User: Fold this.
Amino acid sequence: MIEALKARRDLHGPIAIAIALLIVLAAIWAAQGFGARFFPGSGKVDQVSEHFAAPPPGQPAPPVEPVKYADIAPTDAVKINAAVPFSTEPNPAAKPFKLKDGTEDYERSRDCLAAAAYYEAAAEGDDGMRAVAQVVINRLRHPAFPKTICGVVFQGSERSTGCQFTFSCDGSMARIPSTSGWQRAREIAAATLKGKVFKPVGYSTHYHTNWVVPYWSGSLDKVAQVGTHLFFRWAGWWGTPGAFRGGESGPEPAIAKLAALSPAHKGAEELQLAATDAALSPDKLAAKGARQVKIVSPGGDAFIVILDRKVSASQFPSLALAACGQKEFCKFMGWTDAGKAPKGFPIPEDMHKALSFSYLRNRSNGFEKALWNCREFKRDDESQCMKTS
Assistant:
């Protein structure tokens, strides 16, 4: 989504600016129907009210596309963005969001939210960080996005391009925050999770700095500016309060990139995504430590594996990642005792208790988790131990 465009300065002058501005304004006029409200894709204009209790019939949530920027010099982008008018429609504040504290999920949620606030907007001050945190919460509640905070923040971060928050994939996290800066970001994140609302951005789900022009900016309603960040919501019903009725569901994933900053994410280093784009074949997996591999689902996304006892348990996650490749969903279940391993699903209860290692990934909701049988393999972090009783 959001930051740091390394723009090339190969478009210059008033003609380039005028053309780019016309493109942006044309998209706005098409989306808004010259001031009326528009349901994307429906072809119908609603000139009365946008606050309906249900989405337009047959209209799915808008797709979330990888961010692409127009090839425009920063100085020209500032002029183009300034010429785009703010929406004159109401900009109601979002409803408070509260998350119970004192759990590992809460700790992970808070630190993922703090990372987004810090890396995206620390230079904008407290209000800048509050605005970013509000966008994350808005996305969590909207059906178009993952249903965990970490899933929202790190959506697409497994790719070098296509991440929704650019700090998660552009190398920004190699820069360790100052102690005071990280503490302040955590405080803002904690306040947000206790129901603090940053009202100026309303129900915004998108934003960008004023020195870039994303291709989506012309089709969304521009509703606020905080520092150099411009904030947008979807036009039509999907940008109204009625669309934001979701909440958090499912455990928060451990994020490897946050392990150095957050104790709640330690141990996730072992889940760093494999560099390969494709899953390894069974024979290549055997060379890595899987004595036997069974693909037990028609789509090839679930594995029953006999693990080599000679292989270190710390290597099991890399084996799972090698098997899963870049699959959106993958289940990897390993036994060191072949006599206690099942032949397929469903797995009998006694065989499930004998499981040595498991890995589950579901990128649709940002979930990724590796667990060990700690009666067989001791782990320093008890959160990595599977329940065996």
Notes: The CA atoms of residues 156 and 311 lie 31 Å apart. The chain is about 25% helix and 15% strand.
